[in-house]
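FAQ: What does the model actually see?

It sees only this:
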Amino acid sequence: MKTIRGLRVPGLQDDVSPAGFRHLPVPERVVLPLEFSLGKVNPVVEPGQQIRAGEYVGRDENQMIPPVRASVSGVVTEITPWPSADGQKLLSVVIEANGDEEVVRLPLNGNGESKPESLLRRIAEAGIREVDAYAWPLAVRLAQPSLTPPILLPFAPALRKPVRYLIINGMDRQPGVSVRRNAILAEEKELLESVPLLKQITAAETTLITIYKDQKLPADFERKVSSLGAELLKCPRTYPLALKQGLIPYVTGEKLPGPNDDARSVGAVMLDVTTAQRIAAACKEGYPAVETSVEIIEPARGATTHVKVREGTLLEDLLAQLPDRPQNPAKTIIGGPFLGYAQYQFRIPLTQQTDSVVFQSKDELTHFVNAPCMNCGFCVRHCPMGLMPGDLSRLCEYGHFEAAEKAGLFHCIECGICSYVCPAQRPMVQLLRFGKSEMLAVQEAS
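And it is asked to produce this:
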């Protein structure tokens, strides 16, 4: 194992108590995107069609991308582009709910359901999507070589490698967010149930559950983990260690080959604890992934609320259901203070890729300015990927996108540290995201 360059950031204190998640009522409508970083699925419903929660609304004809399942029962009203948290407009299915809370479960066929291939099929069909971005869909990443579709092997030789490390990550992705720590405390049973399933599917040599060194845990948790043939790895509180680009090298001692950062190339599979809990729910009880766990954070009031909502619930509808909703926030960030995106409206759907929403007061705002770089080197000193963010930001700022790509633009993990430490308060991450989007648009058009 080796250390990672990064920061100890105020706000990462271990203040999580086992408060659990508040299950909010079924919303009046949901908006379910059909486009993702891994690709898009095709709609299999039409406007006016009645649908039940748990049924398909979108599928990939090649059955590679996880399907999209209705999170509520009701009627499909639209299939239309809809704003997403990261500023795009994604083709989405809009469902007006009828208030029915029942969810259609995945079929459980009994005898053959404990076989690895059956478990893997159930995971693929459950529609599980993850907060962290990975090079391959969940079911493909988890499959041991003998279960990997042969059609993929010529294009992804790394999938031929046996899984040395199965990493179930219980550390939250960024400072100030505690949704994963709360999930361990509140849903320990589901997490522990997932461990034998994941070991069976991956055939991993070593199974680790990673936590922070001083993280609060359920009683006797370490012994229970050990009884399942897994290990508890206690890690330092350094950001961005909990991201795959930090944690996998820390565990394996091998750097991920960017920019796709395919962990299977170093014999590792990584997923977070909430994903593991969804896997247990799908494999043991047949529940498709129709809910998402979201943390509502108000730093000014020191208020944190953990909720479970149906996937596709609009942020404005979630706020209407909270008894103590934020009042007149000056800034709303979906995705956390370091990794998230500031919003200009509340009609944004909360998906399984959403783990947190931050509401900042006027006094908490950081005002970025269009100031020239001071060449102080702070961003270079702290960049966990060893890049030169100042140079990259200038290249993107002045439209030299191809030069930025050659200088490592797509190796940037958008952790936000460069913006955090920049004394000139330059919008570093925004500039790098802008450069990436421009390059991706050029590649798509060519």
